[in-house]
Amino acid sequence: MIDLVRQPKLSTNGDPQQGPNGRPMHHLLTSTSLIGKLWLWRYVILRRVCQFTILLLFFGSAHWGWTIANQPILIGNLSGSEFLGFVPLADPFAVLQIFVSQHVLASKVIIGAIIVLALYALIVGRAFCSWACPINMVTDLANWMRSRLQVKDLFRLSGNTRYFVLALTLMLSAIAGVAAFEWISPISMFYRELIFGLGMAWMAVLGIFVFDLFVLKNGWCGHLCPLGAFYALASSRTAQLKVRFIEKTCTHCGECASVCPEPQVLNLKQAGINNMITSGECTNCGRCVALCPEGSLRLDIRFLIASKHQLNPATPIRRTA
Amino acid sequence: MVRTNRSRRQFLTQTTQGAALATTGGLAWFYLLNEQAQAAAYAIRPPGGEDKDEFYAKCIKCGQCVQACPYDTLELAATGDNIPIGTPYFVPRDTPCYMCPDIPCVDACPTGALSPDLTEINQARMGLASIDIENCLSWQGLRCEICYRECPVQNKAISIEHHPRHMSKHAMFVPMVHSNYCTGCGICEQACPTEKAAIRVVQPELVQGKIGEHYQLGWETDTPITQEFKPYKNDTLPFGNSNNTGQALDYLNQDDSL
Asked: Is B25 exposed, middle or buried (0-12, 13-18, 19+ CB in 10 A)?
């Protein structure tokens, strides 16, 4: 069926090559059949399908009158929408900005924001960034071209900059009395114009593309975007969908960190203790999962990981008298 | 000691640099927001969006009002339209608001940017129709009055006044807009037959004056008369024939004009 080839890495003298922790390393998984190749790309394919499905539901409901039981499927855009005519959905970060700008909002949008926030914070983590956000396609393309062209970063910027941008967003919203990020957000700009007709938003998107491609790797999503920062903070401790880390088989070859758009989350020492990638900055994109030649990383549910962790006899239980 | 000083200096420098960067970025951002919020004061907003501060602050730019509109009147401002980005507006000359009694756009708004307090569409104040009397056909003396006939708040928002006219037996039938009834729907603007509309919906604050409270219009019955009443003189009428109004009205009865 799915014929994945997993070959041991050999050093020049023919001995199996060992990773930094002494375990024998393997080459990246390959496949000769189409199904196998698709399987290796499964998360990229699924993410594109997910991104386009959401966009298509918005577009179809707006322009082709898509309905279920006489109710439009998804009306609005990522900032705010209504699903099947009765489930309100809203961007919790946008609502937070309006909230700090001291304006009383209608209950509909607050309920919508709570629903969306609960989805990300309690269930799928920062998956918005890699599974729903339209900019993800742009930055993925920039990243791919950057690796092909072997572009070097122009300067270094801390990944924590985004939290300052987040704080600045809320401060400016309070001072200016309008939702500061919503008025310049290339994400909502781009998405809005995909659904409601094209304006100049492509220029902002082009800006992000060029910035990510020539200036800074993952410049926008990994350093600046306050929406990603918001979801990272919101979901870091509570999200159920997590990348499980199986320390036993990991060779510390570092392939995962080379494809990860947020490589700082792959702190394998920390992950070995918790049996998972704990950082909320992980977008659950699944790149590392599909790539890992040892199968040491996989998407799993937090409470399952936790219970397995407790059952593991190798874990010492400390007692105090 | 030297090492401590250096690291302290480093810390202070970096903090200052960070603060400076945040301030610069913040100021640029703030300037952008201010510019955006003040752009296009003329843009006509959907019903319920009268309070501009509330509207700009609460609008989440989702476009649900746009999709709720059965006449495809509303549009979302695209980037580069010079209208605050992503907010709904309409161009009355292209498609006016047809004033649905159930106001589906307000109903669709999830945030209350289009005020849910608006339950009666005749109470909407999207703008105010304003007549360019230099280009209005009726004000030139032609019989047009299309705006008057098309107006959905008929005979209230637009009335037809007749004025005597120089050198002719026929009176002029001129449209007048009354701000206490005009909803700013723009149906008149769309219907206006002139090449460029001579009646246009604009934001009231761009055209509306204010008398000032110390003026007393003594001849109006519900105005308290605080001074000695002085009879109203005809020659202050803007369109009356000065000094000899009586003659102007009387000339129709004179022989030579028959």
From this structure: middle
pTM: 0.83
**pLDDT tens digits, one per residue of B212-241:** 888 877 777 665 555 555 555 555 545 544
Taking CA–CA distances from A77, the nearest residue in chain B reads: B62
Torsion sign (Cα): B15, B18, B23, B26: negative
Alpha carbon of B55: minimum distance to chain A alpha carbons (Å): 10
Test A199 with B63 for CB contact under 8 angstroms: no
Contacts of A72 (CB under 8 A, 6+ apart): A61, A65, A66, A82, A84, A85, B67
Query: Is the distance from CB of B160 to CB of B175 less than 8 angstroms?
Result: yes
Residues 6+ apart with CB under 8 A from B222: none
Instruction: For residue B44, give the DSSP letter.
Output: B
Q: Angle between the A161-176 and A92-100 helix axes, to the nearest 10 degrees? A: 50
DSSP per-residue letters across B120-178: SGGG--S-EEEE-TTT-TGGGT----HHHHH-SSBTTTEEEEEE--TT-SSPEEEEEE-
ipTM of the complex: 0.84
CB of A188 closer than 8 Å to CB of A182 = yes
